[in-house]
């Protein structure tokens, strides 16, 4: 997407996630996908090694966590630090941008968790109304 050249509070953003050609969609998918948000949230708590991160993000496979970390690292949200030890030690931590994104995600997670009783009531009401006899 091209920059508009405008500046100020009313200027259009140079990227539009609602446009199918916009590169920001890929990053949004990495952040909001099944494992991306959980990985970012877990790393907000601090630097973690791969296996500790995998234990924290319960249910993620080794392959999916590896793919998720690669995507988040490529997007500049996660930093991978490989220590030249034997055996090799690799730590993952959030970048400054990753921390900003994770803060917002954790706010959303907190909202969802705090309102789950309402969600469960809504699901039950919906399921009752849409039962097939």
Feature tags:
globular, 3-stranded antiparallel sheet, about 130 residues, single chain, mainly alpha, 6 helices, Arc Repressor Mutant, subunit A, 3 strands
List the helices and strands and how they pair.
Layout: H1 24-32, H2 36-44, E1 48-49, H3 50-56, H4 62-74, E2 78-83, E3 89-94, H5 96-114, H6 116-129
Antiparallel strand pairs: 1-3, 2-3
Helix pairs in contact: 2-5
- Quick one: biggest sheet? 3 strands, antiparallel
Helix content: 40-55%
Distance between the termini: 51 Å
Q: What fold name goes in the CATH topology slot of the domain at 24-104?
A: Arc Repressor Mutant, subunit A
- Report the strand count: 3
Provide mean pLDDT, rounded. 91
Any idea what the CATH superfamily of the domain at 24-104 is called?
Winged helix-like DNA-binding domain superfamily/Winged helix DNA-binding domain
Which CATH class of the domain at 24-104 applies here?
Answer: Mainly Alpha
Can you tell me the CATH architecture of the domain at 24-104?
A: Orthogonal Bundle
The proportion of strand residues reads 5-15%
Task: Please state the overall shape, judged from the principal axes of the Cα atoms.
Answer: globular
Number of helices: 6
Q: Order of helices and strands, N to C?
A: HHEHHEEHH
Radius of gyration, taken over Cα atoms and rounded to an integer in Å = 19 Å
Low-confidence residue ranges: 1-8
């Amino acid at each position: 997407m091209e920059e508009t050249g405008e500046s100020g509070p009313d200027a259009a953003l140079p990227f539009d996630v609602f446009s199918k050609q916009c590169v920001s969609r890929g990053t949004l998918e990495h952040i909001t996908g099944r494992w991306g948000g959980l990985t970012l949230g877990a790393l907000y708590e601090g630097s973690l090694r791969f296996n500790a991160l995998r234990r924290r993000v319960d249910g993620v496979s080794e392959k999916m966590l590896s793919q998720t970390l690669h995507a988040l690292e490529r997007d500049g949200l996660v930093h991978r630090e490989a220590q030249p030890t034997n055996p090799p030690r690799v730590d993952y931590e959030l970048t400054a941008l990753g921390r900003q994104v994770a803060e917002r995600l954790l706010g959303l997670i907190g909202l969802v968790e705090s309102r789950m009783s309402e969600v469960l009531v809504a699901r039950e009401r919906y399921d009752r109304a849409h039962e097939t006899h």
